[in-house]
Amino acid sequence: MTLPINRPFTLVLGSGGVKSVAGLGVAEVLQREGLHPAAVAGCSAGAVFGALLAMGCRAPEAIRQATQLWSREITSRRRHRALLELALPGLMRFGDDFAMRDDRLIRERLRQAFGDSRLEQLATPMHVQATDALSGEGVALRSGSVVEALRASVALPFLFAPQPWGERLLVDGSLSQPLPVAAAEPSHVVLALGFRVPFPQRASSASRLATRVTAALSNNLLDAQLANADPHRLVLMVPALERRVGLFDTEAMPYLLDLGRRAAEAALPRLRLLLGQRTALSVAA
Predict the structure, then answer these.
(1) In whole angstroms, what is the distance from residue 132 CA to residue 123 CA?
(2) Alpha-carbon distance 256 to 198, whole Å?
(3) If you compute the radius of gyration of the chain from its CA atoms, what whole number of angstroms results?
(4) How far apart are CA 267 and CA 34, in angstroms?
(5) Which H or E run contains 60?
(6) CA 259 to CA 253: how far, in whole Å?
(7) Which residues, other chains included, contact 147 with Cβ-Cβ below 8 Å and sequence gap of 6+?
(8) 3-state class of 165 per DSSP?
(9) pLDDT tens digit string along 133-173?
(10) Which one of 125, 154, 166, 274 has the lowest number of neighbouring Cβ atoms within 10 Å?
(11) Could you tell me which of 5, 66, 62, 65 has the C-alpha nearest to residue 37?
(12) With contact defined as beta carbons under 8 Å apart, do 207 and 166 qualify?
């Protein structure tokens, strides 16, 4: 039976590439239990999957759409000028809009999923975390085009160009708040799903060297955020992966969804306690 809760909660889905799809496994358990977030906050891929839930999708439909939204295809279109811009920056006018990949496909996928929806009109209030490319400060997006906000939040430097937003240029939210727990209202309980970035031990390629740098940055930011979070209202899920999963390893989605379900099941007792919700067993007793 569905029982009343005394406090609202915010569901926070952190960055992690395809790993963030585990949040839809979490949502599946929450929906089964009749627990509905009062708000959703997300960063990077976590924002993309969280926006499906904020739009009102039930977990099965969100999972179906997730397989279209996040795939290796979205990074497959190369910008042919990129290598020239790197090799001859002065001649090719290298600038803030540099990118290795063409973003037209990811924009198309986002438009198919969200159309002309605006953040302030979603069924559940949504916070999308991005980062100001010129100052480095975190930027909380709560109104405006869903497509443009999500495009900003996934704009990983070098991979995709920054997203214009008014007078600003925005890039991936993981550079400022990989797990935006601070986005929740002070009165809300926070149910947060995040992932640590694996740290390569050997820099055997340029990509592994870049991953080593971003892993150190993201993991240190995550630790700092959690150190400042209120433990009396935070239910944290940082599942340990039993296998290596890349940013676009979509074959791992079934495994990740199950990981999210198991993490949610384990978190339910503490979540119910913080929400002030009595269990069906205690009511019967």
Answers:
(1) 27
(2) 16
(3) 19
(4) 15
(5) helix 59-69
(6) 10
(7) 107, 110, 111, 114, 115, 117
(8) strand
(9) 999 999 999 999 999 999 999 999 888 999 999 999 999 99
(10) 166
(11) 5
(12) no
pLDDT, greater one: 72 or 126: 126
Sign of CA dihedral 49, 54, 60, 64: negative
Q: What angle do CA 132, 69, 72 make, to 5 degrees?
A: 90
Mean pLDDT for the chain overall: 90
Q: What is the pLDDT of residue 5?
A: 59
The pLDDT assigned to 74 comes to: 83
Residue identified by tokens 């205690």 is: 282
Question: Cα torsion at 43, 209, 222, 98 (round to 10°)?
Answer: -30
Both tokens of residue 97? Answer: 């809009």
Confidence bin at 236 (pLDDT 50/70/90):
very high
The one-letter amino acid code at 62 reads A
Specify the DSSP class assigned to residue 229. S
Chain segment 28-81, per-residue pLDDT in tens: 999 999 999 999 999 999 999 999 999 999 999 999 999 888 888 888 888 889
Q: What is the pTM of this model?
A: 0.91
Q: What is the distance, to the nearest Å, from the Cα of residue 238 to the centroid of all Cα atoms in its chain? A: 13
Q: What is the b/e burial string over 209-222, where b = at least 16 CB atoms within 10 angstroms of the residue's CB? A: eebbebbeebbebb
Please count the other Cβ atoms lying within 10 Å of the Cβ belonging to residue 143. Answer: 10
In the chain the beta strands, taken as DSSP E runs, fall at 9-13, 39-43, 126-132, 138-141, 163-165, 168-172, 189-193, 234-237
Which residues neighbour 8 within 8 Å (Cβ) at sequence distance 6 or greater? 37, 38, 39, 185, 187, 188, 189
